[in-house]
Amino acid sequence: MIYALPVTRSGRSAIVQPPPYLYAVDYIAVYVSIDPEPARELLPPGLELASNKAWLYVSEFLSYPENNDEMAYLDPELTIYREGAVALNVALDGQSYLYFPFMWVDKDWALIRGYINGYPKKLAHISLSKLHPLMPGRGQLAPGLKLGGYVARNGYALFRLQVELMEKADGVPISAFGPTLTFRRYPATGAGEADVWEYVTVVKGESKITDVWKGRGSVEIGWGPNDEVNLIQIKEVIGGYYYRSFFKILSTKLIKKIQSK
Amino acid sequence: MIYALPVTRSGRSAIVQPPPYLYAVDYIAVYVSIDPEPARELLPPGLELASNKAWLYVSEFLSYPENNDEMAYLDPELTIYREGAVALNVALDGQSYLYFPFMWVDKDWALIRGYINGYPKKLAHISLSKLHPLMPGRGQLAPGLKLGGYVARNGYALFRLQVELMEKADGVPISAFGPTLTFRRYPATGAGEADVWEYVTVVKGESKITDVWKGRGSVEIGWGPNDEVNLIQIKEVIGGYYYRSFFKILSTKLIKKIQSK
Amino acid sequence: MIYALPVTRSGRSAIVQPPPYLYAVDYIAVYVSIDPEPARELLPPGLELASNKAWLYVSEFLSYPENNDEMAYLDPELTIYREGAVALNVALDGQSYLYFPFMWVDKDWALIRGYINGYPKKLAHISLSKLHPLMPGRGQLAPGLKLGGYVARNGYALFRLQVELMEKADGVPISAFGPTLTFRRYPATGAGEADVWEYVTVVKGESKITDVWKGRGSVEIGWGPNDEVNLIQIKEVIGGYYYRSFFKILSTKLIKKIQSK
Amino acid sequence: MIYALPVTRSGRSAIVQPPPYLYAVDYIAVYVSIDPEPARELLPPGLELASNKAWLYVSEFLSYPENNDEMAYLDPELTIYREGAVALNVALDGQSYLYFPFMWVDKDWALIRGYINGYPKKLAHISLSKLHPLMPGRGQLAPGLKLGGYVARNGYALFRLQVELMEKADGVPISAFGPTLTFRRYPATGAGEADVWEYVTVVKGESKITDVWKGRGSVEIGWGPNDEVNLIQIKEVIGGYYYRSFFKILSTKLIKKIQSK
Fold first, then answer.
1. Do D131 and A210 touch (CB under 8 A)?
2. Hey, is the C-beta of B218 within 8 angstroms of any chain D C-beta?
3. pLDDT of residue D137
4. How many domains does chain D have?
5. Contact B80 C130 (CB under 8 A)
6. Is B7 left (phi over 0), alpha (psi -120 to 50) or beta?
7. Cβ A22–D134 below 8 Å, yes or no?
8. Mean pLDDT by 10-residue block, N- to C-terminus, for chain C (261 residues)?
9. Best mutation site among D151, D156, D221 for testing chain B: the one with the most B CBs within 10 Å?
10. HSE-up of D18 (CA within 13 Å, CB side)?
11. CB contact, 8 Å: B184 with chain A?
């Protein structure tokens, strides 16, 4: 089965293998309220804001297709990536969803894999605090621990965040946003060609979240000429979060096709 | 018009703007004959080899949408990229084409722009000799000038080439391969979703080629666990080339849709 | 002769070869006046400001040891680098000099080569407009042409500049600053070890400058937690410049040793 | 105190702060025997091989000056780096040492910090397997776990290694090599300037090693025109190792000065 280019008989050169995919992730995040007015400029046709809450994070992933971790030792770069993103709480046809107007990663396969699943990925330089079990003061999650990170693309800082942990928590507030809605888009480039516009939700298999801590957060929003992240205007930082997560992505579920143009 | 993600009202955050696109390029290339047997493993359904000739190059591009060079001074990285590729001479339904089984670039927008147009792009580290008008011995194309470059992806060297210029030439041999055939592929990720498989040819507007030199060439083919470039097995290096090119890409022309699976 | 680490019998693995070095460069620069008060915090012991003028640039270099351009085709990355810098006009013992409080490059060998010659180099992401002879409107220097670039380090934008060319010029104003003064610094890390503090001037062989254009300029100064470039506070942008330069660096000339601590 | 360039009054812009430094590290390594003949070409004056054993590793570090972890949340990239290296067992004046003929890192501050301490650092692209506590089969060290990594510089793969864990171990064999001997080298660039050639040993404060596992190993040695790592010719891979380490570097101890040239 030819899932993605490049094509070879073995399928081993494709930039992305077919799902299911496994994800094990560390997140540093801030939960904020935003000015809804500029944020509406981030919504594709049919979407509305369901609340004025938003979520920004930086993260590091270990990820590969289920039953195939071979690249984890042959070429670890094909199994590790960093990601930063902005999530909004939107509504489509009366249903509440989590929607990503922006998402940046640092690997080509994560970019294309995401693009096929409807995520608006670009490449950026993403950084986040590292913990190590042997480093005094940075080996364990604990009250007072300061963590931070950022997303920068080319010569422009897009956002930087910091979190100071205060206490363990049971979960993260974005669970209330609803399922993840994405927008598959593959434009026609000539007459008679497919022109894909599809709202889909991401179908997860098992999923868990551990080591959740909350505390104080801060975030600084930047801008780039090709990255209008300044349409996210923070009113208040409600909290800062750290957590680890494991999930499996199986497929997507079609919600709505949009007629071309 | 929403051409590509991310979506914003202004359209200014999209990773790719709609065509037409302008391209001004410097190429260092080798023209080779290859063993047809392993090379057949690189062909998607319906394609055959039309000859045992192939072409490998490294190159640097200045490129942006026509009538919009603003990023050339706001963020030059959104207008400059390097590319390395392998081109084969294939036949589809009796017609001869130039087909790229592999192509690597070093920018996200070049990757997605290419993917939409059916090019099998990945990211890699690409390098090629630089000329400068003030550098003694490297300011002008001249007999005896040695040029080189390579493509490496993660921890694997994919190919390295060298060219020693001998004399001016009128053109490059790949013109004989025919128009560029690409393969638009955007897989369904769930039931009822579009599953795009389309052979298209790239429609160029004006196009010119200047400063063509030929000479001796050499090339060393590598391998990667996700990049089976070793299926290109060189029998003979016929020549080495340097040239500059300008062209405009307007759209693509649908040649054939393939029924899904 | 062991000039730099790593050591091998052949000397071919050293990160830097001995001088003389050749440099062929394209520069985009702005000439500015600055607030002298914060800028004084950038001066090492004994230096004073000689004027309130400063110069910021982004540039791309082709550079290698004289009589040895082999790497230009074996590994072009060992002969190409980009550089961004801030230059001040300082005085030491009554003599006027050009002094770089900050300089960023994008290659390890340019970093160490510079460090040995007393330049305060770090690595950064540097970008600048590219010209190409075949690109309409970006093939020739001409009135109205807009050029730009930036320096960003990790998640922080350090400066961005733009220039709009107006007319040809005879030279660049930094010639009036005097010779380039650098500060060789290699600290002792234990008792009895050498602790180098030396002011030197860079000794150039032949040097020329061509294609000088001036026009309007603009610059935006950023900041980083490890890059206090915000100590450069612009009062006025006097002009913007583009030029090409060739020069040879032969050695340095000792001006003054400083007693350790 | 001005420890390193760039100089500012606050000291906050220096590429490296003074020691002591903290290091918390994950290592993947292979223990090998080598052909002594070519390896001798890697030894600076006065060194001899003390055995035909060598050690190659890839690793990831969390590291910063003691009592100053601020960058861990302001700019995590100033506290995280990857390193790959080759270690030999040498003798100087009858004393056995661990000596690094080659060491590559991926951050400028790690490069200069190392260079000041006598390590022959260059920049390279370094990758190693990542573990994550929530990833099935890659959350825990266990028999059968496969790990790997590599060092590549520009277009050349320098080495790749793989380890398959078999059992816990008490320590790593390089402890028997002796203390770490490095070679501080800062060449004069003009008459009367300091010309530093000093053998020193690295002085560690507390140091510990945990989670040591050993098993099967394999390694593939490459080559680069500026990286003669092919002088390491493997006779046998004795074992593969994974371990974590914490140590503090306080200073260096002068062993021997070499008369210039």
1. no
2. no
3. 97
4. 1
5. yes
6. beta
7. no
8. 94 97 98 98 96 98 96 98 98 98 98 98 98 98 98 98 98 96 97 97 96 98 98 98 98 91 52
9. D156
10. 8
11. yes
Alpha-carbon distance of A236 to A141, in angstroms, equals 25
Residue A3 lies in a domain: no
Q: Does D152 touch chain B (CB under 8 A)?
A: yes
> How confident is residue B59, by pLDDT bands cut at 50, 70 and 90?
very high
Hey, which chains touch A, using 3+ CB pairs under 8 Å?
B, C, D
CB contact under 8 A, C125 and A127: no
The residue ranges of chain A whose pLDDT is under 70 are 260-261
Residues B155-208: tens digit of each pLDDT = 999 999 999 999 999 999 999 999 999 999 999 999 999 999 999 999 999 999
Mode of pairing for the β-strands spanning C95-105 and A95-105: unpaired
Of D86, D89, D80, give the one whose Cα is nearest residue D174: D89
**Rounded to 5 degrees, what angle do the CA atoms C10, C12, C16 make?**
130
For A76, the closest of D130, D132, D136 (CB atoms) is D130
Joined together, the tokens standing for residue A114 give 């995401």
- Of how many residues is chain D composed? 261
Does residue B74 carry a pLDDT above 80?
Answer: yes
Residue C238 resides in a domain: yes
Cβ atoms of residues A41 and A246 within 8 Å: no
Q: What is the DSSP letter of A227?
A: B
Tell me which residue has tokens 């300091």: D194
Both tokens of A188, joined, read: 């026609």
Q: What is the DSSP letter of D12?
A: T
Is A136–D244 a contact, with Cβ atoms under 8 angstroms apart? no
Q: Which of C112, C189, C200 sits opposite D193 (nearest CB)?
A: C200
Which residues are B185's β-sheet partners? B197
Residue C157 contacts A where some CB pair is shorter than 8 Å: yes
Question: B181: domain CATH number?
Answer: 2.40.400.10
| DSSP at D43 | P
Contacts of D148 in chain A (CB under 8 A): 72-74, 76
Interface pTM, i.e. ipTM = 0.97
- Residues spanned by the domain of D115: 21-257
pLDDT of the residue at C260: 61
Gap between the Cα atoms of D107 and D83, Å rounded: 9
Rg, chain A, Cα only: 19
CB pairs < 8 Å spanning B and C: 105
Cβ-Cβ contacts under 8 Å, C150 against chain A: 154-155
Tell me phi and psi for residue B78, to 5 degrees: -85, 5
Q: What local confidence, expressed as pLDDT, does residue B23 receive? A: 98
Q: Which residues of D154-168 are buried (b: 16+ CB within 10 A; e: fewer)?
A: bbbbbbbbbbbbeee
pLDDT for B261: 52
Residue with tokens 């500026």: D226
User: If we measure between CA atoms, which residue out of A123, A60, A56 comes closest to residue A88?
Assistant: A56
- Residue D38 in any domain: the answer is yes
For C177, other C-beta atoms within 10 Å of its C-beta total 22
Distance CA C70, CA C67 (A): 9
Contact D73 A129 (CB under 8 A): yes
Q: One-letter amino acid identity for D31?
A: Y
pLDDT digits (tens, 9 = 90+) for C163-174: 999 999 999 999
Q: Is residue B6 part of a domain?
A: no
Instruction: Per residue of chain D (261 residues), give pLDDT as tens.
Output: 799 999 999 999 999 999 999 999 999 999 999 999 999 999 999 999 999 999 999 999 999 999 999 999 999 999 999 999 999 999 999 999 999 999 999 999 999 999 999 999 999 999 999 999 999 999 999 999 999 999 999 999 999 999 999 999 999 999 999 999 999 999 999 999 999 999 999 999 999 999 999 999 999 999 999 999 999 999 999 999 999 999 999 999 999 999 765
* Parallel/antiparallel/unpaired status of strands B95-105 and B121-123: parallel
